[in-house]
Amino acid sequence: MFHADASAALVQDGEVVFAIAEERLNRIKHYAGFPSLAIKACLDFAGAKITDIDHVTIGQDSDANLAKKVQYALANPARILNFIHMRQRKQPMRDVSFLLANALDVDPKTFRFQQHHVEHHIAHIASAYYCSPFEKAAGFSYDGSGDFVSTMMARCEGNQIQVLDRVFLPDSLGSFYTMICEFIGYPQYGDEGKVMGLAPYGKDTLCDKLAEVIGLRNGSFNLDHRFFKPLGSNQGMQVLPDGTVRLARHFSNRMVKAFGHPREPHTELTQREMDLAYAMQRRFEDVFFHLLNQLHRQMPCEDLAIAGGCALNSVANGKLFARTPFRQTWIQPAAGDEGLAIGAAYHTCHAVLNQPRRFVMKNPYLGPEFSDACIESNLKKSNLRYRRLEREPLLDAVAQQIAAGNVVGWFQGRMEWGPRALGNRSILAHPGLPGMKDVLNARIKRREWFRPFAPSILQERQREYFEHDHPSPFMLHVYKIRPEKRAQLSAVNHVDDTGRLQSVSPEENPLYYELIRAFERKTGIPVVLNTSFNENEPIVCQPEEAIDCFKRTRMDVLAIGPYLSLKTENS
User: Fold this and answer.
1) How far is CA 247 from CA 2, 210, 267, 458, 481, in A?
2) What is the rounded end-to-end Cα distance, in angstroms, of the chain?
3) Maximum distance among all alpha carbons in the chain?
4) What is the pLDDT of residue 233?
5) Which helix H or strand E contains 161, and what residues bound it?
6) How far apart are CA 190 and CA 170, in angstroms?
7) Contact 55, 114 (CB under 8 A)
8) What are phi and psi for residue 108, nearest 5 degrees?
9) How many other CB atoms sit within 10 Å of the CB of residue 491?
10) Could you give the CA distance from residue 45 to residue 66 in angstroms, rounded to a whole number?
11) Is 373 helix (H, G, I), strand (E, B) or coil?
12) Range with the lowest mean pLDDT among 93-102, 263-272, 299-308, 550-559?
């Protein structure tokens, strides 16, 4: 809370039963205020009241690393006032009882819960390790910043997470990535994922020059701070009164001297921007693998649990098996700060209360679902023509529509946890039609031309189509597509012949798995193109949002619950 991607999660008897980001409910992307709607949704799901809750835990602790903060402030006297402002800004987070009482209109005297604060990156690592099947693993978290730390390495075993090393601000791999994104004209919070898609269009012309900005040293790294604006009271990010997030300028005039004038947003991209994106991704990977190899030396095992906003860099994730000794990864699907809710809760469960581990997150479907009656009521209100189908006829009809080249909005079951649409709030299309990417952008998504779309593939067929068989159930790995399959996957084959895949198993999502199988029976391709069900907004959560998106865009088909609506019948 009071940080981008505010969220809430409910853990009951050691199992996470519900989790949701506030943005899905208030429709403000990357919302950074108090997650009152998400908290209410958690309580409503369980039929509980806040007075029933035993423990409330926050993935932020302003007292953590206090000595390092003071040391930095004293070494930079001009920043002391910023340090004081930072402490004052975070003070509201300390009085959780007041915030909850105000949000839920409850007398705080009736609360019985104990309150816990978990250091930011410990909560990140907890969100991955405690949700994984690993009994022992190396833990790794990295992002822009949190509690004055940008990177953490840990030994995870049994119930305990032992911190092995921290990288303190102002050194930050996340800030490095954000700064370059901003310099090449992508200054919004969350734009980093866009620029990752631009990188393969670049050439190796600026790698050596950009290496001056961030250097490797003794199993860690450091920034050349002359290329960055000084660390301010907001640590590079401002939360506006409406909960939206604005990034402060990260780069200094030294960047301008070294690389020329920054690109203005929405102007033409030149080869320089592409080459900078390429160099940035290459350098990011070099530092990432350097850190992981250092971690493996301290925690020599094959299993790696990863979280933090930078863990969404699926290109780097896909390469780590070749560049490090780790053989298995478990990456929190909500790797960014929304995942802190689950991580803080589980750290309290296991490391503080010493409750036994009994939960493995086998799928990300932790959000709300809606009854057929609720869905049909919304369809009637919308004046759409629709028909109800049984399971097999629905799957056959939708598979036929995708095979025919039509674009389908697919709204089923419980909403996904995390930023990726994983087959329950998805827009689906044929992965093998060369013009499909342009069709999706023109009709619905309106995304940058260089951003790829993702393939969802039957898990047992992954090895036939991709050059790596490590599963990617949360769409967090990019692998090379095999040469003989690239034509079949032309709409999801990126310029460097890769795909950010989602491997789909019948255990994780039986309905989506059966849909892909139905599509394969019609086309011979065990893959569908999957992108998020939205149009420049948070992913749809409720039926009325899906229906509205269907109506205002040039989507061909809406499959919502057991109901099917065709645009051709509603023109």
Assistant:
1) 14, 22, 20, 39, 36
2) 43
3) 70
4) 44
5) strand 160-168
6) 20
7) yes
8) -60, -20
9) 22
10) 38
11) helix
12) 93-102
Catalytic residue among 3, 117, 120, 124: 3
Averaged pLDDT for residues 136-150: 97
Using the predicted structure, report yes or no on whether residue 539 has a pLDDT greater than 60: yes
Residue 563, CA distances (Å) to 148, 355, 385, 394, 566 in order: 49, 43, 10, 8, 10
Task: Kindly provide the b/e burial profile for residues 437-449, where b requires at least 16 CB atoms within 10 angstroms of the residue's own CB.
Answer: bebbeeebbebee
- The one-letter amino acid code at 288 reads F
User: What's the pLDDT score for residue 314?
Assistant: 98
Task: Give per-residue pLDDT as tens, 234-260.
Answer: 556 788 889 998 888 999 999 999 999
Q: Determine the residue type at 392.
A: E
Residue 232 exposed, middle or buried by CB count within 10 Å (0-12, 13-18, 19+): middle
- What tens digit of pLDDT does each residue of 2-40 get? 689 999 999 999 999 999 999 999 999 999 999 999 999
At 1 the pLDDT is 63
| Whole-number percent of the chain with pLDDT over 70 | 96
Check: CB of residue 421 under 8 Å from CB of residue 533: yes
d(CA 317, CA 479): 9
Where helices occur in 324-357 by DSSP H, the ranges are: 340-347
Nearest-10 crossing angle of helices 314-323, 271-298: 50
Sign of CA dihedral 250, 252, 253, 259: negative
Q: How confident is the model at residue 89 (pLDDT cuts 50, 70, 90)?
A: low
Pairwise CA distance, residues 378 & 395, whole Å: 22
- Candidates 341, 371, 180; CA nearest to 276 is 180
If we measure between CA atoms, which residue out of 28, 127, 152 comes closest to residue 474? 127
SS3 291: helix
CA pair distance 277, 200, nearest whole angstrom: 8
In the residue annotation, 117 being an active-site residue is answered as no
Radius of gyration, alpha carbons of the chain: 23
Q: Give the whole-angstrom CA distance, residue 149 versus residue 146.
A: 5
> The tokens of 6 are what?
């505010």
Positive or negative torsion for Cα 205, 178, 176, 267: positive
Euclidean distance between CA atoms 307 and 196, whole angstroms: 18
Amino acid identity, residue 171?
A: D
- Is 534 within 8 Å of 540 (Cβ atoms)? yes
Tokens 């989602």 sit on residue: 502
What DSSP element (H or E) covers 521?
helix 510-523
Cβ proximity of 278 and 200 under 8 Å? yes
Token pair, residue 10, equals: 């409910």
Dihedral pair phi/psi, residue 435, rounded to 5°: -90, 5
Q: What is the DSSP letter of 429?
A: E
- Identify the burial level of 193 via C-beta atoms within 10 angstroms of its C-beta, where 0-12 means exposed, 13-18 middle and 19 or more buried: middle
Are 351 and 161 in contact by the 8 Å Cβ rule? The answer is yes
Q: Is the pTM of this model over 0.90?
A: yes
Alpha carbon distances (Å) from 125 to 109, 111, 154, 289, 474: 33, 29, 8, 17, 17
Residue 452's contacts (CB-CB under 8 Å, 6 or more residues apart) are 197, 437, 492, 493, 494, 498, 499, 500
CB 335 within 8 A of CB 141: no
